[in-house]
Amino acid sequence: MWDSLGGKLAERWAAVSGPALTFWLGGLLVWLAARDGLRSLDIATAWLTRRSGPVQWMFVLAAVAGIAASGLLVKQLTRPALALLEGYWPGWLDAPRRRLVGRVSRRADADAERFQELAGPVHDGTATAGQRAEFAAVDGRLRRLPTRDRLLPTRVGNVLRAAETRPIDKYGLDPVVAWPHLWLVFPEPTRQELTAARRSLDLSVAAAVWGVLFVAFAPLAWWAAPAGLAVAAAAGWGWVPARAAAYADLVEASVDLHRPALYASLRWPPPRHPDHEREQGRLLTTYLRRGLHGTAPAFQPPSAPDVGE
User: What is the CA 245 to chain-centroid distance, rounded?
Assistant: First the structure.
């Protein structure tokens, strides 16, 4: 039991403290560069070795606790940092937010117009290879955008909002409202894939946070600021959008594939065709959000248990 418990604690500590340990090792390098290099480390090590055993253990435990605490702090900052990267900004940034949304909207309009121009040749088979490649690129950009009234000022925000809201347009079902219920009907492999993709997204956001925090070492060495900002920029403009797109694809695919299980689990009448599904999806969203009154829709009879249960 203790071996198992110790192993789990070690895994959790490593998951939380791995990036924190990297951050503090970088801070140590900055400190060494600002002083006498390895000579300063030798002096500090020699001072610690002259202390008693309990004092040495206190220093070790304090270091471990500090690393873990900083890792937990950044983990708590990950969600608000992701919200900022999505474009959910405070009110005093409303003007630049509107300008950026307007720019995104104009680009979307240009892509939609170009999509229509290329759709005919592509569908009738007369398009050149270059036109087909451009059509695929334009289609991919449009797919990463929500509808005009839901646009956000950033790429990450639009990618995630498109995945969150496209099921509303396709099925009438709001996945934000239904997500706890959907999660419970997802098969275990689907939940594992979603969890891994979300963890990867959160780690990329955390990398951006660590990069910004590394700027705090700039008073010790000037190059700490550009190094930290470079990591933050690489995470914010590269890693986060890519991992947000992967997570968004999984979210949308999970709703596409497993929404019938939600209908069945709630004993909700299954949709008969796409238009009927949008109607039923909107009704089901209302039912999950605050309930319904009356006798419609009529619930399906419970499914018969399997033989042998």
Answer: 9
Write down the residue that tokens 């894939």 correspond to. 193
Torsion of Cα atoms, 196 then 201 then 204 then 206, to 10°: -100
Q: Where are the beta strands (DSSP E) in the chain?
A: none
The sign of the dihedral angle between the CA atoms of 75, 76, 79, 85 is: negative
- Residue 128 DSSP symbol: -
The whole-angstrom separation of Cα 213 and Cα 74 is: 9
> What is the residue-level pLDDT of the chain in tens, covering all 309 positions?
334 433 454 555 555 567 888 898 888 888 787 777 666 666 667 666 777 777 777 877 877 778 888 888 998 999 999 999 999 999 999 999 999 999 999 999 999 999 999 999 999 989 999 999 999 999 999 999 999 999 999 999 999 999 999 999 999 999 999 999 999 999 999 999 999 999 999 999 999 999 999 999 999 889 999 999 999 999 999 999 999 999 999 999 999 999 999 999 999 999 999 999 999 999 999 999 999 888 888 888 876 555 444
Angstrom distance (rounded) from CA 158 to CA 4: 43
| Residue 175 CB burial class (10 angstroms; 0-12, 13-18, ≥19) | buried
